[in-house]
Design brief:
By secondary structure, this protein is mainly alpha-helical. The protein is built from 18 helices and no strands. It has a single domain (about 45-425), classed as Growth Hormone, Chain: A (Up-down Bundle).
Length: about 425
């Protein structure tokens, strides 16, 4: 059985992943029912379908993101009031994430992914029809529910694919999300001065429904790989391996720190360019577009980078690069310099989240994926409202420097995790 290619040998978690894969291999005969015996192209159709859902999720989220300034003006919201409304995305997502894992176990990852995508596609059109902060909050509550449900379900499906193909391909799924976000931001920038918010988000909703109808029908007909290895690991974790659970929580906190920056830039990058650097709506959309483009490029190379330099080095270096880039973007006196900073942030944050989720799954199976994903997406969802409250008191540029601080914290957590006794003593 092939090993997960984590190199170089100095990566402290290499032994953990290697030992658990060897244990699973000895406990399961080759070609077990429902599990591919080879790593060929048997699951390529499934990988494509899951990739489509990741890309659609990013596209729909970006469609909302580039319209935040228009919706803010539409409901006459102050930064703090907008922060409260954005907090409803977090509330809807967290409430949904708490139950979606059980729904996936009961009904399967594929049906839940399809249902969640339908909900998200419908909900993305609702903020354009809100004319008060309260109405906007209600619309974003539903939007957050669809977004949170889809992200948990499709990440669970992606972990199944990673186990089936036996390669660290999780960054490629998240690259599809970033590519979808890049396309959504680009389309939004082109339409910002040509269509009303209602027309733009309405068309985005129709697009999401159409893609879900086609890809969802195919996905429901595609069997789910049986992940015997992680099922065994889940049993081992429940029997009392607390040290690995602590590592999973630390990986979740690492994902939280980095996704905080992703969520913050999604909702506030455009406003930073319009309010602080006085750009137009089209150029403001380019801020998030530059970030999304850099993140897409970084994730496309994420598998190669983690195999070449080791996952820890990629995560630590990325956190430090994102810290420097965010300080540049937040404090830059000119638009080109700010855009350059956004590019550095995108490259730096690109692979930390998917690598953290993949590591958690390799350590403890589905419980680890659930814990790390919930913590990680919580960071993406709490970032925007926190930035809003801080912007009211200290200004938006200062508030955005918290993204840099947490990126540095993420790098520090990875260093501490690698030096922990659990990491050193695990087989």
């Amino acid at each position: 059985m092939n090993k997960i290619p984590v190199s170089p040998d100095s990566d402290p978690l290499r032994r953990i992943l290697r030992g658990r894969i060897r244990s699973a291999a000895s406990a399961r005969p080759a070609g077990a029912a429902g599990t591919p015996a080879t790593t060929g192209s048997a699951w390529t159709p499934l990988r494509i379908l899951i990739t489509v859902f990741f890309a659609t999720d990013g596209f729909l989220f970006a469609a909302w993101v580039v319209r935040v300034p228009a919706v803010k003006a539409q409901v006459h919201a102050s930064p703090s009031a907008l922060g409260l409304a954005l907090l409803c995305i977090s509330g809807g997502a967290v409430a949904t994430m708490a139950v979606v894992g059980r729904l996936c176990v009961r009904y399967g990852n594929h049906p839940v992914s399809v249902g969640s995508a339908l909900l998200l596609s419908i909900a993305v059109a609702l903020p354009a029809h809100a004319h008060t902060v309260v109405a906007l909050g209600a619309a974003l509550l539903l939007f957050g529910a669809g977004y949170g449900a889809l992200n948990v379900a499709m990440n669970s499906a992606a972990v199944d694919v990673v186990a089936a193909v036996r390669r660290p391909v999780m960054p490629t799924f998240h690259a599809a999300y970033s590519l979808g976000a890049l396309c959504g931001a680009g389309v939004g920038g082109l339409l910002a001065d040509r269509l009303t918010t209602a027309w733009h988000l309405g068309l985005a909703a129709l697009f999401g429904l159409a893609v879900t109808a086609v890809a969802g029908t195919l996905l429901l007909r595609t069997p789910t790989p049986v992940r015997t290895t992680v099922r065994n690991e889940a049993t081992a974790t429940r029997s009392g391996n607390r040290q690995l659970q602590v590592l999973v929580v630390l990986l979740g906190l690492t994902a939280l720190c980095t996704s905080y920056g992703e969520g913050a830039l999604a909702d506030w990058a455009a406003l930073h360019l319009t309010d602080d650097l006085h750009t137009g709506a089209g150029l403001a959309a380019a801020g998030y577009g530059a970030f999304a483009f850099a993140m897409t490029a970084g994730r496309l190379g994420g598998t190669w980078l983690s195999m070449r330099f080791g996952q820890s080095r990629v995560m630590i270096g990325g956190g430090l690069l994102a810290c420097a880039g965010m300080l540049t973007a937040a404090l830059a006196p000119s638009v080109p310099l700010a855009l350059g900073g956004f590019v550095l942030v995108g490259i730096g944050l690109a692979n930390t989240f998917p690598l953290a989720i993949a590591r958690a799954g390799a350590l403890t199976g589905p419980p680890g994926v659930a814990t790390a994903s919930t913590l990680g997406y919580a960071g993406m969802l709490i970032g925007p409202p926190v930035i809003g409250f801080l912007a009211d008191g200290f200004g938006l540029p200062t508030a955005l420097t918290t993204v840099a601080a947490l990126a540095a914290v993420a790098a520090a957590i990875v260093i501490g995790t690698d030096r922990s006794p659990a990491a050193r003593q695990s087989p």
